[in-house]
Amino acid sequence: MLRSNILLFVLVFSLVVVSCDSNRVYDEYKSVPNTWNKDSVISFKINPPDSLNHYNLFVNLRNTNNYKYNNLFLIVEMVFPHGKTIKDTLEYKMADPTGKLLGTGLTDIKENKLWYKEKIVFNEAGDYTVNIQHAMRENGKVNGVVDLEGVTDVGFRIERTNNN
Q1: Number of independent structural domains in the chain
Q2: 150: which DSSP letter?
Q3: What is the pTM of this model?
Q4: Which of 66, 83, 79, 88 is nearest to 148 (CA)?
Q5: Residue 6 belongs to some domain of the structure
């Protein structure tokens, strides 16, 4: 009896968790070992679901309290199946004015869902590639931060828009 109650609880809990994220189409993370080197490009190969509907795109990031900056600069490149490339340099706020890290999470690991593009239509058939690398610099210094500390995982997410 106890075993069947536990099984029922796990099944119901799993359904609740999955149903809460019904807009998710693609969601993948890649781990960053110790530090994120400025030359390290994190790539995601995406086979889009269709060429008719609109989608919102996000860069997901997990960081610890070892992340010591108020912001984050990323270079995000989307390579289309037929070779066209769009490259953006993006800035995200990572801490409030008091220095407290933003993001969700009850432990010292914070998760940030960062807007990349909205209402995108994948109108070319084939695989898309998204490349992400950091472009951090310290104030007053010419050279960039070589090894960025505090980032544990970088992810990419595609969600259905509410208009689909």
Answers
A1: 1
A2: S
A3: 0.83
A4: 66
A5: no
Tell me the C-alpha distance between 119 and 77, whole Å. Answer: 17
| Cα–Cα distances in angstroms (integers) from residue 161 to residues 48, 83, 96, 117, 142, in the given order | 14, 26, 28, 12, 40
**Which residues make Cβ contacts (< 8 Å) with residue 131, sequence separation at least 6?**
41, 42, 43, 75, 76, 77, 79
Q: Looking at the domain assignment, is residue 38 inside a domain? A: yes
Whole-angstrom distance, CA of residue 82 vs CA of residue 64: 38
Tokens, residue 29: 């993370």
In terms of Cα–Cα distance, which of 9, 28, 5 is closest to 156? Answer: 28
Q: Which two three-digit tokens encode residue 99?
A: 């220095």
Q: Which of 93, 90, 94 is nearest to 76 (CA)?
A: 90
The predicted-structure confidence for 41-96, as pLDDT tens digits, reads as follows: 999 999 988 889 999 999 999 999 999 999 999 999 999 999 999 999 999 999 99
For residue 65, tell me if it sits in a domain: yes
Sequential DSSP letters for 13-25: HHHHHHHTTTTEE
* 19 in any annotated domain: no
**Residue corresponding to tokens 């530090």:** 35
